[in-house]
Amino acid sequence: MGKIIIMDHPLIQHKLSLIRDKQTGPKDFRELLDEISMLMAYEVTRDLPLQTVEIETPMARMRTKVIAGKKLGIVPILRAGLGMVDGILRLVPAARVGHIGLYRDPETLEPVEYYCKLPSDANERELIVVDPMLATGGSAAAAISFLKKRGCTQIRMMNLLAAPEGLERVQSEHPDVDIYVAAVDERLNDHGYITPGLGDAGDRLYGTK
Fold first, then answer.
1. CB 144 within 8 A of CB 116
2. What is the C-alpha to C-alpha distance for residues 11 and 82, in angstroms, rounded to an integer?
3. Which of 34, 69, 84, 114 has the greatest number of CB atoms lying within 10 Å of its CB?
4. Known active-site residue 105
5. Is position 204 annotated as part of the catalytic site?
6. Is-contact 174 168, C-beta < 8 A?
7. How far apart are CA 160 and CA 39, in angstroms?
8. What is the pTM of this model?
9. Digit-coded pLDDT (tens) for 73-119
């Protein structure tokens, strides 16, 4: 079974409290989401393999560590997932970015695909699927399924907030995928939104309703 990793770093938790506040406007929301994503990416990439290389400093030659050629990919679920990409790229600028477009049917709450574009070598990369909210889990599970159908096998999920229902669904459908979250909230409300949550992440990110 994939692991659920809750990131309790003080900076992440502090910024998460700010981003939840309904008084936080789109500009500050975007900046906070960017900062939290970078902090979370630091933890998500903690176990990347290293290899030893030899370099020359101004003083002497030495053997030191570099990342062992691991190819990374970031796959935001549109549209809110886009707000997490730049923060991750600041840490791993060589990562390639794919996009998966899904929307949730307001009646069935099930995901509907409208777009999918991935790097040509996506199946050779360690992919981090990003979306601020893991609510029902339908969109996340569907996105992971789309990646697997295209031959991708090394997949992680990174979310700001998760509901227990979303975690359960993704783990049930994709027990091989580790999930990284900043917090697990109480539940979903009758409309499928995380409670207490932070509202609709896409609307708050881009100032829409």
1. no
2. 22
3. 84
4. no
5. no
6. no
7. 11
8. 0.91
9. 999 999 899 999 999 999 999 999 999 998 777 787 677 888 999 99
Active site residue 104: yes
Tokens of 73: 């990919």
Residue type, 205: L
For this structure, is 203 an active site residue?
A: yes
Place of tokens 């506040």: 21
Which residue, 134, 187, 188, is CA-closest to 2? 134
The segments of the chain whose pLDDT lies below 50 read none
Where does residue 115 rank: exposed (0-12), middle (13-18), buried (19+ CB within 10 A)? exposed
Contact, 193 vs 200, CB < 8 A?
yes
Catalytic hit among 79, 200, 204, 208: 200
> DSSP 3-state assignment of 121?
coil
* Torsion angles phi and psi, residue 116, rounded to 5: -155, 120
Q: How far apart are CA 90 and CA 150, in angstroms?
A: 27
Q: Select which of 8, 57, 61, 108 is catalytic.
A: 108
